[in-house]
Amino acid sequence: MTVYRGRVWRFGDHVDTDQIIPAERLVSENLDRLGDFAFEKVRPRIAEKMNEGDIIIAERNFGCGSSREHAPLALMDAGISCIVAESFSRIFFRNSINTGLALVECPVEIEEGSEAEVDTSAGTIRDLSTGKVYNFKKHPEFIQNLIESGGLIEAIRRRK
Amino acid sequence: MKGKTVAEKILSKKSGQDARAGDIVEAEVDFVMVNDVTGPIAFRRFESLGLPPKKEKIVLIPDHYVPNKDIASAEQAKEMREFAKRHCIENYFEVGRSGVCHQIMIDEGFAAPGRLIVGADSHTCTYGGLGAFSTGIGSTEAAAAFATGRLWFKVPETIRIELTGKFRKDVGGKDLVIKLITDMGVDGAIYQAWEFGGPGADAMPVPDRLTICNMAIEAGAKAGIFPCDSKTDDYVKDKVRGDYEAVVPDKDARYVKVLRYDLSELEPMVACPHLPENGRPVREVDVAIDQAYLGSCTNGRIEDMRIAAEIIKGRKVAPGVRMIVVPASPSVQRAMIDEGLMTVFMDAGAFVSGPTCGACLGGYMGILAEGEKAVSSTNRNFVGRMGHKGSEVYLAGPAVVAASAVLGRIAVPEDLP
Asked: Is A67's CB within 8 Å of B72's CB?
């Protein structure tokens, strides 16, 4: 369905939602500029360097912690198109489906700064620096349909 | 067919299907709750649908930044107030009648056994302590539930946790949950549920069960559940709205694994920075503190206040240490006044406030400066959680928080002179 191509930003295990966007930024007046605050406490000014389409590659339990939907919204606003991780926290996973942030569950070893390409219909992740290809299992049909509808609100609108 | 876990039974009943671990079902929720931080996004999404709200299912509880911290949070709180007014939603709790959302859900009788409750706050899993299936969701999902009263769920596998024995003095639910998270890791129960049982669970007071289920999310769990028993019935009887149904697991329910803990072997625990899985026995930790925080949806109940007050009584908060006490709801605060606990804390030199999420999430009312260390009865010790990224949070139960406030270092009550 979709191909995401961009520069890779590396993160480790258990990247929590307070790291992604601190609680003090969670006010309505920031809703159209959440990306400015992405990772501001743990990797200051990284958001300025992220470009449209960039990809995050992380390890276990990405997005753990709070239910704040501001977390996937902040990453998308910073330019992130897709996150590849070994596993995701379940609320972050559900929030991403609904905000349109692509998530792929797969352990990969691609260095920060490399270019990568994620093809969600082929189920492949390509390290464009080395040519190495990783294969991943697609989401269950129900979730795939939800993503293709554009999230839960769109799915309800279609059903109406 | 094998029997069912509590999670499978509640999701079967609410979906009208034979829900088994791994299935995806659409189920009718009893209540959907949002707070002042997650509400505004939900309101926008909901309004974009142009559908009428399922009013009787919606609960609106401002707690994170109220009483309004600043102009931005005042504007945000106003959005919730206006949404409630526009759609004539009765279950909106104004400042003065509001508090930490999860305690309000309990005090006001929304949380009850057998119910399916979702909330746009990750600690919604707390009501599993009353035998409900409750879990955190995002704002868009809350908006969908406002409109349809329904939501999709992947039925979780369940880890059964068999408890024997009884807590020793100065040990409680917080110490067990820190131990559980430390043993299984912060992603040890990802996509799964915890279900408790055994004589240790039967004997455990309900407030300890609530503390444990509150932190199920810190192991990645979707829910933590203590099946309903007579203790649960007693706890909810003066609070509950409407009828409820006790749900207990079948004897031949299928569990992904069974863990066993003897409560009498547990000792006071502290989770060191910067993950809840960094639990260690308090006696192995030697850390001087700047702040001791007692409150939150984890340990801001009257039982927590009583435990801490008994230790603080007749003693003083150490010089140079701030002790901040935040009851989780107006009913907790009122009980503190009636029982004279407010005086106990104030005589000791502690600051006591009304109910709010406050500093737990780094909001306000006790933010940490660079290099400062706090012992806290809250649920998360992530980098910068309660303030500066160079500050540190040590999670512990109310007895350790109180003893540490007096001694100025992380300590157990036994260390007190």
From this structure: no
